[in-house]
Amino acid sequence: MAELFLYLAMVAPVSWLERCPTYKEQVVQLASKEVSTLGFLGYPVLQCADIIIVHGEIVPVGEDQLPHLELCREIVRRFNFLYGDYFKEPEALLSEVKRLPGTDGRKMSKSYGNAIYLSDDPDTIRKKVRQMITDPQRIYRTDPGHPEICLVFDLHEIYSSEEIAKVEEDCREARIGCTQCKDLLARRIADSLASFRQKRKDLLEDEGRIEGIFAQSREKVLKIADKTMADVRNLLKL
Ligand code: SF4
Q1: CA of residue 122 to ligand 1 center, whole Å
Q2: Parallel, antiparallel, or unpaired: how do β-strands 91-94 and 58-61 relate?
Q3: Does domain 122-204 have CATH number 1.10.240.10?
Q4: Could you give the CA distance from residue 174 to residue 5 in angstroms, rounded to a whole number?
Q5: Type and span of the H or E element at 5
Q6: 2-99 CATH, one of 3.10.28.20, 3.40.50.620, 3.20.20.150, 3.40.1350.10
Q7: Percent of the chain at pLDDT above 90?
Q8: pLDDT tens digit sequence for 86-105
Q9: Ligand 1, atom nearest to 170 Cα
């Protein structure tokens, strides 16, 4: 991976990386951290190496990662132009929900500390959802709400689709308080993650099985990656 990253870094112009929207966003959003580094700037190149070293053709991503994938496709085109038609341009596979907002309204990200993790238990989810900002015009419980400007409602649309009309009406008619509404959302999120959490717990209790899966996958991937790197070295006449 590191070797392929190095070769791809030689063909990826810095200007392509600097115009990447996620990098520009991180420079602004993470102003207190030092993100003007080669590591952050070159991260999409590392992702590209990660994809193409195994000739990945379909990549499941969120909408915010599309520019990275487009960059990867450009790097592949440039590599193929310079050294011969070898890699395929990977395609994105978007899920039904293309972008999930974090608990502060920005994109959900570990770096922003606004993420609800797949492994979070119901109580942790409830605490995180309770911190979310709602309709700022709704000051008293008796004030009618405006779901169209409420982040909690945005997530209800994803997790409570079957009862969304009722949530909207209850909010507009002030029949429900924001805390009650948040707790309902937290329950829906926790319910949707319940089977995943159980599966994760079962796997963690069965260490041997995880190690077996890793070993099998490692063997499979190494075979493909070794062949890719041998081909790449040939193309580069190294
Ligand atoms: S009731 Fe729910 S949707 Fe309405 S403002 Fe409060 S949290 Fe948002």
Answers
A1: 20
A2: parallel
A3: yes
A4: 55
A5: helix 2-11
A6: 3.40.50.620
A7: 76
A8: 999 999 999 888 778 899 98
A9: 1
